[in-house]
Amino acid sequence: MAELAPNKAPETAIRGARFLLWLEAWKSFKKNKLAVVGLIIVLIFVFLAVFAPVITPEGINEQKLAERLQPPSSEHWLGTDDFGRDILSRIIHGARISLWVGFVSVIGSIVVGCFLGILAGYYGRWVDTLISRFFDIMLAFPSMLLAIAIVAVLGPSLRNALIAIAIINVPNFGRLIRSKVLSIKQEEYITAAKAIGMRDRRILFHHILPNSMAPIIVQGTLAIATAIIEAAALGFLGLGAEPPTPEWGKMLADSKDYLVQAPWTMFFPGIAIMLTVLGFNLMGDGLRDALDPRMKN
């Protein structure tokens, strides 16, 4: 059956309705004080990451051995490390790396996971069985252990750590979008779209995917926090960023031998990781409550 010419009026009405729903969700989000706090924390770190070259007091790799392991002072607000490098400068530049890894890895996971999840949920049968068993196999391994194995095969580097983090998160998004597609494809408007001969690609990308974005956004926000922790863990194990890259996990690994002598070398990078993860978690919880009011209580 040939596909009928699309009527623009209903699509415009649908877009308007979606806009109103997102506007209502934003109003609900603003009422959640913890979510707003999380958003502010995230925006602060994003600001630091974007303008890091402008606001850092010193070069991130500038070594001053005469000033090594100096405590926090007016000259070095967060002290110096074992090479005399300013810790504040390295933490600010480290924000660029951690956020970049978090955002890029999660975007990659969303793209691949959503593609596989949509295929599994919409077409079903052997396609669903094959993709679902693939997800089950990946989820059978502890995520961190799987990431370590992937980096061990590809070789230690920040890029390979990013790839590993993206891969281990694919099943989470794939199963989420699959369950959403299984629910949406039973709706009457999907049945009507098929009845008038609308192509599968148009149904998937104009009807099913837009109506599945709310849980993906929530899960993606929370996944960024997890990705930052995983990147720091790989860096701490020596499987992520290489010296002298100011990655937070690598900074923790380099300063572990000075925990008693200079505790600030570990304390401040750890605080940076904790605050960033806390910000994304609070924001994710707020988005979940705003986009799915049933989850509030």
From TrEMBL:
The answer to whether the entry has keyword Membrane is yes
Q: What is its main location?
A: membrane
What are the record keywords, sorted? Cell membrane, Membrane, Transmembrane, Transmembrane helix, Transport
Q: Which Pfam families match?
A: BPD_transp_1, OppC_N
Q: Which residues form the ABC transmembrane type-1 domain?
A: 95-284
Q: Per the UniProt record, which residue ranges are transmembrane? A: 34-55, 97-122, 134-155, 216-241, 261-284
Database matches in Gene3D superfamilies:
MetI-like
Locations listed in the record: Cell membrane
Q: What membrane topology was assigned to this protein in its record?
A: Multi-pass membrane protein
Determine if Magnesium is one of this entry's keywords: no
Coiled-coil portions: none
Q: Which CDD domains match?
A: TM_PBP2 (cd06261)
Which family, according to UniProt?
A: Belongs to the binding-protein-dependent transport system permease family. OppBC subfamily.
Q: What is this protein called?
A: ABC transporter permease
Q: Which organism is it from?
A: Chengkuizengella axinellae
Ranked from the top, the taxonomy reads: Bacteria, Bacillati, Bacillota, Bacilli, Bacillales
